[in-house]
Structures are given as structure tokens and as C-alpha cells.
Design brief:
By secondary structure, the protein is mostly helical. It folds into 2 domains: about 5-75, Winged helix-like DNA-binding domain superfamily/Winged helix DNA-binding domain (Arc Repressor Mutant, subunit A, Orthogonal Bundle); about 80-210, GntR ligand-binding domain-like (Four Helix Bundle (Hemerythrin (Met), subunit A), Up-down Bundle), CATH 1.20.120.530. The protein is built from 10 helices and 2 strands; from the N terminus they run H-H-H-E-E-H-H-H-H-H-H-H. A two-stranded antiparallel ribbon has the order 1-2. The longest helix has 22 residues, at about 90-110. The chain is elongated and about 60 Å long. This is GntR family transcriptional regulator.
């Protein structure tokens, strides 16, 4: 087998494993089959499987746990890489990246929102308020993320949506830390004005409102 052929085969195995992970065959947090099992499933050699798994581990999609096996840590390479970068990043830098994405998303959403987008935003905003009232941090973090995802979706830019999805897990983690388990009243920030500006079709105001709550590192 030539080097080129071997490299191509490894890429094919990487692609197949990535597709199976993305399809949910092995959910995030679950353990993938053992190396011998993968050899049988994929019909390739042990070294090819080993190289493919190593590549996906380096990309942050998989993680080997000594004495236990290899686990799925993300559903795609971009998410894995970004999550790893965000996890090690300075808080201020993380907020700057959020601001860059979310401010532009809000601005575009004000220009491009549809009636369906507005309905989704209203529902997400209401759900976020209800989630805060529960006092459950995990519930609130999910509801907060849903609202921001709805804003990004209303921007109707597939590349922006994909990039935001890749950092969403890291953003949720930062929000959970900022809110804290006590969910004190002083840490809550109303997002109604962001939605109102998008509804009014005012891109400058939407961008300003989206950026306002990201000025302070302690706020989510």
C-alpha cells in the first residue's frame, strides 16, 4: 500500500466515524467501540483505526480515558477545537468573541427577521423569563441559549449560525459560571429590549442592546 493510499483510507475512516458521531450513533459522553470492534465494523486494519481515532482525539471530538476507553466529547471537529480553546481562554477574550458574534447577529436579525423568527423570539424570551423564575441554573442556561440561538437564526446567515453553534457549549458554561448557583436578582439581565429592537427593524439599536450585557465579565 502506498503512503497516499494509506492516507486516503485513514481520511475515509475519519469521515465515517465523524458521520456516525454526528448522527448520534455514539452520543456525546458515550464510549465508542473498542479498537478491535472498530476494525471489524469498518473492515480496515488496526493501524488505520488507531490513526483515525488519534486524529479525532487531537481534534477534540474524542478523548481517551486511561483504563476505561475512548469517549465522544463533541459532535464535530470545529466544536471540539473551539470548546477546547474557549475552556482555556481568558474570560475577557471569551466575552469579546461572544460580542463579535452576537452583536452582528442581532444587527442582521433586525434587517432580515421574518414573522416566524419573531414568533420564535417571543417564545424564547418568555421561556427564558420563566426559567429564571425556577431558580434552577441549568434550566435557565438552556433557555438563555435558546434565545440567543433564535437571534442568530433570525440573522439568516448559515455560516454565522454554524460558527455560533460551535461555541455554544462553551458559552453555556460561561453563562452558568456568571449566573452562579444562587441566581441572585442582581445578576439577571432582561433581554426584552434586544427582541424589541429586532421587531422594530432597528439594526443599530439591536446591536447596541446585544452588546450592552456583554460589557461586564460577571454578566451572562
Amino acid at each position: 500500500m502506498t503512503l497516499g493510499t494509506r492516507s486516503t483510507l485513514v481520511q475515509q475512516v475519519i469521515s465515517r466515524l465523524s458521520e456516525q458521531i454526528a448522527a448520534g450513533e455514539w452520543p456525546v459522553g458515550s464510549k465508542i467501540p473498542t479498537e478491535p470492534q472498530l476494525v471489524e465494523i469498518l473492515g480496515v486494519g488496526r493501524n488505520t483505526v488507531r490513526e483515525a481515532v488519534r486524529a479525532l482525539t487531537h481534534a477534540g471530538v474524542l478523548e481517551g480515558v486511561q483504563g476505561s476507553g475512548t469517549y465522544v466529547r463533541s459532535t464535530d471537529e470545529l466544536t471540539g477545537v473551539v470548546a477546547r480553546k474557549f475552556g482555556a481562554a481568558d474570560v475577557g477574550h471569551t466575552i469579546e468573541v461572544r460580542r463579535a458574534l452576537e452583536v452582528e447577529a442581532a444587527r442582521l436579525a433586525a434587517l432580515r427577521r421574518t414573522p416566524d423568527d419573531l414568533a420564535r423570539l417571543d417564545a424564547a424570551l418568555a421561556a427564558r423569563d420563566v426559567a429564571w423564575a425556577t431558580g434552577d441554573t441549568d434550566v435557565f442556561v438552556e433557555a438563555d441559549a435558546d434565545l440567543h440561538v433564535a437571534v442568530v437564526a433570525a440573522a439568516h446567515n448559515p455560516m454565522l449560525a454554524e460558527l455560533y453553534a460551535s461555541v455554544l457549549a462553551a458559552i453555556k458554561a460561561s453563562v452558568a459560571v456568571a449566573v452562579g448557583p444562587a441566581m441572585l436578582a442582581g445578576t439577571h439581565i432582561d433581554h426584552a429590549q434586544i427582541v424589541a429592537a429586532i421587531r422594530d427593524g432597528d439594526p443599530d439599536r439591536a446591536a447596541r442592546e446585544a452588546g450592552r450585557f456583554l460589557e461586564a465579565p460577571a454578566r451572562a
